[in-house]
Amino acid sequence: MTIENVLLVSAALFAIGAYGVVSRRSLITVIMSLELMFNGVVIAAVGFSRFTPAAALLSGDPITAEAIRSALTGHVFAIFVTSVAAGEAALAFALVFAMYRATESVEITDASEMKN
Amino acid sequence: MMEVSSLTTIAFWATSALILGLALIVVTQRDVFRAAIALAGSFFGVGILYFILSAEFVGVVQILVYVGAISVLMAFAVMFIQDIASGSRPSQGRLVGAAVAVLIFAALAFTAYNTNWSSMDEITDPVAVAALTEGYTERTIDGEIQILGQGVAPDAGFDIENDGVFVDSTSALGVSLIREYMLAFEIIGLLLVASLIGGLLLIRDRSPETESEAAEAETGGASV
């Protein structure tokens, strides 16, 4: 298990999600694929945090508490991306419901008219 | 420092295979409900992967937010929308999509393997190594916080002893969130409230009967 392996898994998950976004017609499956892509990105952030050193620890300056905590920047990034993804999923499903009520369909090809 | 045992490596590859296999089911399965179940499994696998990468708190957040909340939201969406029986049909852009996905994957994998990433072994400062893997002591001397390595004489009352940040990442992460990332942390709360209100506004039923009912309910409440 090295940083390359983690990035490989992250890239594979991102690519599978990208395939799902363009190849599916149902809006629900498209949103699921978007969430897969989010997960791929977060895996990369956590992997970098685990396997690559924080710049502040390499500089040779005296170690400060902030420098030590900066080793966890990837984790902070992961938490923020997860929160944004949660808010985005709630809004996306509200949109899907609104569209279903307006057009009786959740297919992307029917979504070209979003009036009312 | 921070060697990876072969057992961890086996667990890593097994979890990765689980994640990617379930993700493939999500994007190829026609039955949307089965896709939602596979998605929950994939999210759970990612949570396990975070534990393997010694990010325990992120792993717990992943399982709580993704498996507990987002997957349930998706299951509700699938059950609410009735014409789901027709399934999720593939669109015409299938081959193009597959080609683009393979290209994205190839580019990212090429970059990952052809970049000379710096490694944890480049950290030479023994205090920094101990702070990451074993522990460190914060001592306030003349109003300034100094970091001391392991094995210093304890000075009760002035010392704060911490575990290494990769041993106990949760407490270091908590401190980090309310010091360095305080503003972003507050803004995320604001964003979540905004998306909550936005979601409610979007699914509000605007038909005339419900509007008048709502108005009646309001005036009734005011008279009481």
Helix-strand category of chain B: mainly alpha
User: Major sheet of chain A, described briefly?
Assistant: none
Spans where pLDDT lies below 50 across 5 or more residues of chain A: none
The domain count of chain A comes to: 1
Mean pLDDT of chain B: 84
Largest sheet of chain B: 3 strands, antiparallel
CATH superfamily of the largest domain in chain B: NADH-ubiquinone/plastoquinone oxidoreductase chain 6, subunit NuoJ
Number of domains as seen in the coordinates of chain B: 3
Characterize this entry briefly:
Chain A contains five helices and no strands. Chain A is mostly helical and 116 residues long. In chain A, helix 1 packs antiparallel against helix 2 and helix 2 runs antiparallel to helix 5.
Description of the molecule:
The complex is a heterodimer of chains A (116) and B (224). Chain A has 116 residues and is mostly helical. Chain A is 74% helix and 0% strand. Chain A has one domain: Helix Hairpins, CATH 1.10.287.3510. Chain A has helices at 3-23, 27-51, 55-58, 65-69, 73-103. In chain A, helix 1 (3-23) packs antiparallel against helix 2 (27-51) and helix 2 runs antiparallel to helix 5. Chain A is elongated, with a radius of gyration of 19 Å. Chain A starts with a helix and ends in a 13-residue tail after the last helix. The model of chain A has no long low-confidence stretch (mean pLDDT 88). Chain B is mainly alpha-helical. Chain B has a 3-stranded antiparallel β-sheet with strand order 2-1-3. In chain B, helix 1 (6-28) runs antiparallel to helix 2 (32-52) and helix 2 packs antiparallel against helix 3. Chain B is extended, with a radius of gyration of 26 Å. Chains A and B meet through helix 1, helix 2, helix 4 and helix 5 of A and helix 1, helix 2, helix 3, helix 4 and helix 5 of B.
